[in-house]
Specification:
Blueprint lengths: L21 H9 L17 E2 L12 H15 L4 H4 L5 H9 L10 E4 L2 H15 L5 E4 L5 H14 L4 E4 L2 H7 L4 E7 L11 H10 L3 E5 L11 H4 L3 E4 L13 E5 L43 H12 L6 H22 L6 E2 L11 E5 L3 H10 L2 E2 L1 E3 L3 E5 L7 H17 L15
Parallel strand pairs: 1-11, 3-4, 3-5, 5-6, 6-7
Antiparallel strand pairs: 2-8, 7-8, 9-10, 10-13, 12-13
Helix pairs in contact: 1-13, 2-10, 4-10, 5-6, 11-13
The structure holds pyridoxal-5'-phosphate (PLP).
The site of pyridoxal-5'-phosphate (PLP) has 12 residues, from helix 5 and helix 6.
């Protein structure tokens, strides 16, 4: 048994594990200053969407924005739109809009490529800044693409690089004078466990190493302050909490102090100082613009811009507080109301150590998630046994948490998930 959980706002009153009611949550929605942000999203009625950490919901503005980009800018403007609609500046413009969400200066962020590609670029660049060091440190169980890209870099550069996977508990102590870069994901995609970004960055700096942060599961949900933590390099996903749409382009952060020294290994023409001089020799653009490689995808950028615009006027500390409070309520209610045989919390109980999703383990996790989805509660499953619930503070209500947990309670109590149709694995889980 655990201690009672209290919400931070005393006006709602202490809500114990056993005492939290649906009315309490409805009351909390009524006083939630972020509640109006939900109106900016086109959410299907009758559905509770707990997967905004995998694919953010569709903002109401997106279809018109993308439609305009297609019909007016592309259809009528044609190639002129690179100038007349300033397509050429879109990566920097959208980057500048993402910057305040992660505590960066406008000129430190640019949108380019995918998260996987950006990780490759930044880690190769970091190695270039530490030419006499060969160790890249990360943790086992990091997001697969991060590990695979690091393995690819090690394969490409051979003896120049040694990739070390060190378990979380020992990682800070493993940063030493051989370490070129520490490459970590701020919020773990399975457990939602959060790295203490400031501490790890400070430790890296004390040993002369760089810190590269993957913010895919935190940008747009947590109050990240890259400037305050002294982060060197970071990147993140456009289609999760930033609501940029499936496969949206990614963002890159390069602290101002590294911008003129950091080279991109993908030295494409859009990162050239003067792409339209068409000269033979590469000369990197000043600033973060050298992180561009090829021609930016303008339709993807238009959708991402609409997603990022949904944050207008939103204070990130309040957003983080709401996401964590949603998580506290979710954990509280699951443990108070659901059959707990085989269902165990996989996320930190302490909100300050979590991101904005909550995970539980269950040996029948896949089937349970399918049964939930069949009843209109959409989360996802991460092998081998993780049920993952994204608690997107921008468009989720406290009452949704109650309703989702009641659905989970019924799925477990009824044994409904044991139907063979729920065991059939789809390609994407
Ligand atoms: C979602 C996610 C990615 C996605 O990378 P893509 O290149 O967009 O497929 C990468 N890293 C982490 C930690 C993620 O959570």
């Amino acid at each position: 048994m655990r201690d009672a959980v209290a919400f931070e706002e005393p006006s709602v009153g202490a809500m114990s594990k056993s005492g939290l009611s649906r009315n309490d949550l409805v009351a909390r929605d009524a006083v939630d200053p972020l509640a109006p942000a939900r109106e900016g999203f086109d959410l299907p009625p009758g559905l509770i969407y707990l997967d905004g950490n995998s694919l953010g919901a569709l903002p109401r503005a997106t279809a018109a924005r993308v439609g305009e980009t297609i019909e007016i800018e592309w259809g009528a403007g044609l190639v002129r739109s690179w100038n007349t609609h300033d397509w050429i500046a879109a990566p920097a413009r959208v980057g500048a809009k993402i910057a305040p969400l992660v505590g960066a200066a406008a000129h430190e962020v640019i949108v380019a490529d995918s998260t996987s590609v950006n990780l490759f670029k930044l880690v190769c660049g970091a190695l270039g800044l530490r030419p006499d060091r060969r160790v890249i440190l990360t943790e086992p169980g990091n997001f697969p693409t991060d590990l695979y890209v690091l393995q690819g870099i090690a394969g490409l550069l051979g003896s120049r690089v040694e990739l070390r996977l060190v378990p979380r508990a020992e990682l800070a102590g493993a940063i030493d004078e051989e370490t070129a870069a520490v490459v970590l994901t701020h919020v773990h995609y399975k457990t939602a466990e959060r790295w203490p970004m400031a501490e790890i960055t400070a430790r890296a700096h004390a040993k002369g190493a760089l810190a590269v942060w993957d913010l895919s599961h935190s940008a747009g949900a947590l109050a990240i302050d890259l400037g305050a933590v002294g982060a060197d390099l970071a990147l993140g996903c456009g289609y999760k909490y930033l609501n940029g749409g499936p496969g949206a382009p990614s963002f890159v952060f390069v602290a101002e102090r590294w911008q003129e020294a950091l080279a991109s290994p993908l030295s494409g023409w859009m990162g050239h100082a003067a792409p339209f001089e068409f000269v033979d020799d590469y000369r990197p653009a000043p600033g973060v613009r050298r992180q561009l490689c090829g021609t930016p995808g303008i339709l993807g950028l238009a959708a991402l811009e609409a997603g990022v615009d949904a944050f207008a006027g939103v204070e990130m500390a309040a957003l983080e507080g709401k996401g964590l409070a949603l998580g506290d309520a979710f954990i509280d209610l699951v443990e108070a109301r659901c059959e707990l045989a085989n269902l165990t919390l996989a996320s930190p109980r302490e909100a300050a150590r979590r991101g904005s999703h909550v995970s539980f383990r269950h040996p029948d996790g896949y089937a349970i998630m399918q049964a939930l989805i069949a009843r209109g509660v959409i989360g996802d499953f991460r092998a081998p046994d993780i049920l993952r619930f994204g608690l997107t503070p921008l468009y989720l209500r406290f009452a949704d948490v109650w309703d989702a947990v009641e659905t989970l309670r019924d799925v477990l109590a009824s044994g409904d998930y044991r139907q063979p149709r729920f065991a059939r694995r789809a390609t994407v889980t």
